[in-house]
Amino acid sequence: MNSGNAQVIHTVSELVSLIQTAKRSGKTIGFVPTMGALHDGHLSLMRASKAENDITVCSIYVNPTQFDNKDDLAKYPKTLDVDVALLNTVGVELVFAPSDTEMYPDGMDYVINVDLDEVDKVLEGAHRPGHFEGVVQIVHRLLEVVQPHHLYMGQKDFQQFTIIQKMIDNLEMPIELVVCPIAREDHGLARSSRNERLSAEDRGRACIIYHTLNEMKDDIHHLSIDNLLTRAELRLSWSWTELEYVDIINGNTLTSVSKVDDQDYLVAVVAVWIGGVRLIDNLILYKN
Ligand code: PAF
Predict the structure, then answer these.
(1) β-strand pairing of 7-9 with 94-96
(2) Are 89 and 58 within one domain?
């Protein structure tokens, strides 16, 4: 195991000055934005950044503007000391843990003007009003501050990284987005800070999500989309589940598809409540 002593920075000015110095001496910067409560999934992003950059910056900031539910924001775990200890196990160099005023010096009430081709309106966007405006706002601000060469995000938030890629393209930001595979627990449940809120029983039951996604992948060339979705809905309908959506989408446009034939990139996506916890997951069915 690598180990190190990450430098924890709370102000934009200090971070900018450290990064400028590093860049002047030719160092590359990898950046992993997080909201803390770190787990193995986050650490896999840190490792990917460590492997490809001289300096890895991890931000830990619970961004108020992306919460559509105030209760969720209030309950969000804040575990900076534990997070920094974990980041030290993988040798992250810089941890940026800013306050609200550092992130939003002119207030939180503004919108980043960027054409997202409607990919923010479907799926999570349709179920969590205002969520992606908040994500775009904070990631834009963080990228402005960190100015990394590489940005690391997880495939688990499929729509999130698609939107951020659109923002980077649209605003011509000189940053390469690297998407890392979903880290999973032993029985397939996608790693998430929310898993900690599941009872042991519900955590076991939640593996039905990965099972259902895999079943769709196995049969994508044998059954119609309608049949695949009907079966998936059935699999995810129990007294202990509340299904929000399950769908098969085009991986570029994020729109629902009705036929497999003419598609080059298909992804199955799901959002389901188990034991009062909202879980999302996805699986690439194929990509040509
Ligand atoms: O995925 C997350 O944890 C957050 O949405 C992000 C990208 C750190 C922005 O607050």
Answers:
(1) parallel
(2) yes
Q: Catalogue the active-site residues.
A: 42
Q: Looking at ligand 1, which residue's alpha carbon is closest to its atom 3?
A: 34
What is the separation of C-alpha 88 from the centre of its chain, rounded to a whole number of angstroms?
22
> What's the total number of domains in the chain?
2
The residue type of 36 is G
- Model pLDDT for residues 206-263, shown as the tens digit of each residue: 999 999 999 999 999 999 999 999 999 999 999 999 999 999 999 999 999 999 987 8
**In Å, what is the CA distance from 72 to each residue of 40, 51, 77, 90, 120?**
22, 34, 10, 29, 21
* Ligand 1 centroid, distance to 158 Cα (angstroms): 12
Ordered alpha helix ranges (H), the chain: 12-24, 40-52, 70-75, 80-90, 100-103, 123-127, 131-146, 158-170, 200-205, 207-219, 225-235
Are 155 and 263 members of one domain?
no
